[in-house]
Design goal:
Four Helix Bundle (Hemerythrin (Met), subunit A), about 5% strand, two-stranded antiparallel ribbon, 12 helices
């Protein structure tokens, strides 16, 4: 029978040393500093040697963590200046959605339907919360759309239409929903560029947008939401009819 030695007892009593993921460590420290409001969006991080000392990691390890955080959009590097906490969360949120699309976990159809759910409520809130200046900005984009019906002007029409929806989202004054709808709209941008080619009557599309605007001006939240829903359902049905989403889940 083998004899149990003191070394065996010591070995059994000691737990294996857990390996620390340096990126997780750096993320955890930055998260803690943000939670305590020591760092804020736009804050400049201390120089790398100082960060290494404070966190307790080597410079190569810190740079590896920074590279991952930069790809995720949590931080941004300014050459010759330093590293900053990002002020925009769009990239932070859009990266996972982009990969979900690439992995066929969500389709463009899913995203478009999600856009409808969000934008109907945004139109309702814009009718309640928008300022006079915000309503004037919407009208400015409608004026551009109203004189851009020709084939040569379709890109100008699309850009003004995109900004019109963006202004409604801003006028709803909900920062989280605004960030989310910005990402969703961005993911659908290429599809919307193609879609404008299939809009046979841009004047009809313009009238749908104008009805949304009129309801917002009248402070009629119900009418604004309904007008937005009708407009987006028209667009969704057109994309389905043209086969934009065909094979998205294949």
């Amino acid at each position: 029978m083998a004899k149990i030695t003191d070394l065996d007892i010591l070995s059994a009593a000691l737990e294996p040393v857990q390996k620390i993921d340096v990126t997780d460590l750096v993320v955890g420290r930055l998260r803690m500093l943000l939670e305590k409001r020591i760092l804020k969006p736009g804050s400049k991080l201390p120089p790398e040697p100082e960060m290494c000392r404070m966190i307790g990691v080597s410079r190569p390890s810190l740079r590896q963590a920074y590279k991952a955080l930069n790809l995720l959009g949590v931080i941004r590097a300014v050459p010759g200046d330093g590293t900053y906490i990002s002020e925009s969360t769009s990239k932070v949120l859009s990266m996972p959605l982009t990969f979900l699309m690439l992995m066929r976990k969500i389709s463009l159809d899913d995203i478009f339907e999600f856009r409808i759910l969000l934008e109907v409520e945004l139109a309702r809130q814009a009718a309640i919360r928008s300022s006079g200046q915000e309503v004037e900005a919407m009208n400015s984009q409608l004026e551009i759309m109203g004189v851009s019906f020709t084939e040569e002007q379709k890109e100008r029409y699309l850009e003004a239409e995109y900004e019109f929806h963006n202004l409604i989202a801003q006028a709803a004054h909900n920062a989280l929903i605004f960030e989310i709808i910005s990402i969703v709209s961005g993911l659908l941008w290429e599809a919307r560029k193609e879609l404008v080619n299939f809009v046979q009557d841009r004047s009809g599309d313009f009238n749908e947008h104008y009805r949304i605007y009129e309801a917002i001006c009248a402070r009629d939240a119900g009418a604004a939401g309904e007008a937005m829903k009708q407009h987006l359902m028209t667009a969704l049905n057109l994309t389905r009819g043209e086969g934009f989403f065909k094979g998205a889940d294949a």
